What we know:
single chain, alpha/beta, Aspartate Aminotransferase, domain 2, 19 strands
Amino acid sequence: MKVDTKVVLLGSENIGKTCLVHRIFKGAFRGEYENTIGAAFCAKRFNVEGKTVTLGIWDTAGAEKFESISEQYTRNSNAAIICYDVTDRLTFEKAKQWIVTMKRDQPDCTIYLTGTKGDLPNQVITDTVASDYAYIEDCSHIRMESWAAKAGDVFHSYYEIPFYHLIVEIGLVLFILKILMSKSTGSPADETPLTEKEMEKLIAEWTPEPLVPVGAAEKEVPVPIIESKVGKYVTINGKECLNLATMNFLGMIGKQEIEEAAITSVLKYGVGSCGPRGFYGTIDVHLLLEEKLAQYMECEEAIIYSYGFATVASAIPAYSKRGDIIFCDEEVCYAIQKGILASRSTVYYYKHNDLDHLVELLEIQATKDRKNPKKARVTNRFLVTEGLFINTGQITNLPRLIELKQKYKFRIFLDESYSFGVLGENGRGLTEFYNVDRRNVDMIVGSMEFSLGSVGGFACGSSFVIRHQRLAGQGYVFSASLPPLHASMVLKAMDFFNKDLFSKLIENCKFAHQALETIDTITVAGDPLSPMKHIRLIDNNSEEALREICTMARENNLALTVASYNSTELFKKEPSIRLTVNTELTEDEITSSIKSIADIVELYISRDISQESAR
């Protein structure tokens, strides 16, 4: 309904925001409002419909200004509503004086009193004014919390919001109503139930799916059973073999001093930690090991994990998130692949150790960044690779990667699980091997399960990088901490680190590589300095053939293994026998072992040819 009410609003711009009129007129302090929501509300609440009303809003700061302009507006008013927000007696006296003047000049004008609570209580002001001027009606009971004030706020908010916002809200309401009123998609209630005879027939006709696919048992590969320590020699199915299968690079397994350290730790701490690091799982040997690793790797801080696989798989998603970009080598290990998958980042794989292909991918991304600089500024870029690849035995060209990092601005995450304790004069890995500043690598990840003969992993770098993992590394935060006996073993194993030990390993790696290259029926993949050699048959290089050769090798007291890969690997791997070298092997043992491999391969090939001829 249209209300012909005109409101003349007077007052100070400093009026308190709790004032009723201030709320109704959305913060206005002066102006004329005719046939508006605010005017309609005032007309209704003060019973002044169809009249011209003066609203006087009083406070301390605006008293003088209000008094000077009020007269020109109040000459034709039918009613005056005094809204006060007084903070001192002086302002209150001025308000009373204005009321007296208005009543004298316009005797037919009705005066109302309302307001908010300042330093002087409402009741005191109301009583004082009413006692001097009995014709003033008290309206101080009107509050902002009234339904009309709230309704006014709602109407104003809808009036001021953008039109498209209102359309979206209406659409959402209609969508919710449609969902609530839509019929259920379940089975109809009046569906005819099956009879006992029909149910028995259906049950008799049903054939359950086999839990294991048909023929899977026939393809199952017999697992060799280990019956001794996995040291230089290992007993497999009752037969002692020279161990060229496991990654005991520095011969730490079986050392008496390390075993004694483990026993001492078990007697002191027990066999496990039974809690994550943040929940009573931090033991003093953990802190000692982290400090020792940080000092040895010449970095600010280190962090240890209870499982080597979980180290890099947790470290990557701790930093790289959805929307970020990762460049990665195709031949990285399965743990890195899982870490990248968990990060939900955009990943670009470049060909194995092909840095020219990496440059092409970086240039493509640089072009995209130039087209969308706003997005580029908030996108993190990482390069993830291994120092020494377990799948190929190749070494990463770290100096070239650092050059590309400085040009294309990305962070380097380097997995040194297989190069720690192997490469470098002191076994510090790729940074020492290439003599580059370790600070050029943003994070180094390593394993304690190969060169150190224990369990777990570690990451090291700047304090800023490592401390973030203590809150965001899932394998650190949610997994039970490394058992103290394994931390004690690593501490003791690192005491054996010396230059002679590392140089002995490199000499054995070179010697074994040269000897394997003399066999003309196989190919050898991997760097000469790598303790992992991948052997493949030149002809008929199938997994079945390689497994048969490993079985024949065990019969000749030699332990070999076929490299195994998960079925969900991103890139298909060529089958190979993975031969590992360690420091405990002598040149004579290496020579005789490789001669045995050559004889076994020759025997297998000749037998295979005979079988083909018989067919």
